Amino acid sequence: LKPTLFRFQYGVPVIKYNRNGFKPRPRQLLLMQNKAYIVEEDKIKQKIEYPTLKGVSVSNLSDGVFVIHVPCESNKQKGDVILQCEHVFETVTKLCTIASK
């Protein structure tokens, strides 16, 4: 693998909400050149391949909530990811810019 595929682009602390009971969990969203990672401390919790990204939705309230839409067709993906962060516009803009390259 080429080292440039893992180049760090952007990182932000987020709150991830589980689909079961919407329990909030602190995480980091790391946007790399080839995919996005949701991590807890030093453990990768979820990988999001940019080509599989179906879209991003942002709440119209001032709550900082956004949803990354991914298919749950394979065992690797768990479905849509519900996140909250203080810098939602910057994060979504960076995600869309990096993913569209």
Helices and strands in order:
Layout: E1 8-17, E2 24-32, E3 35-40, E4 43-49, E5 55-58, E6 65-69, E7 81-84, H1 88-99
Antiparallel strand pairs: 1-2, 1-7, 2-3, 3-4, 5-6, 6-7
Outline the structure in words.
- This protein is mainly β.
- It has one helix and seven strands, in the order βββββββα.
- A seven-stranded antiparallel sheet has the order 4-3-2-1-7-6-5, covered by helices on one side.
- Strand 5 (55-58) and strand 6 form a beta hairpin.
- The chain is globular, with a radius of gyration of 13 Å.
Q: Biggest β-sheet, characterized?
A: 7 strands, antiparallel
SS element count, helices: 1
Main sheet: strand order:
4-3-2-1-7-6-5
Rg, rounded, reads 13 Å
Question: Helices and strands, in N-to-C order?
Answer: EEEEEEEH
Helix content: 10-25%
Distance between the termini: 19 Å
Number of E-state strands: 7
Pick out the low-confidence regions.
none
Q: How much of the sequence is in beta strands?
A: 35-45%
The helix/strand class is mainly beta
Instruction: Give the averaged pLDDT, no decimals.
Output: 88
The shape is: globular
Features of the shown structure:
101 residues; mainly beta; 1 helix; 12% helix
Summary, kept brief:
The chain is mainly beta and 101 residues long. 12% of the residues lie in helices and 45% in strands.
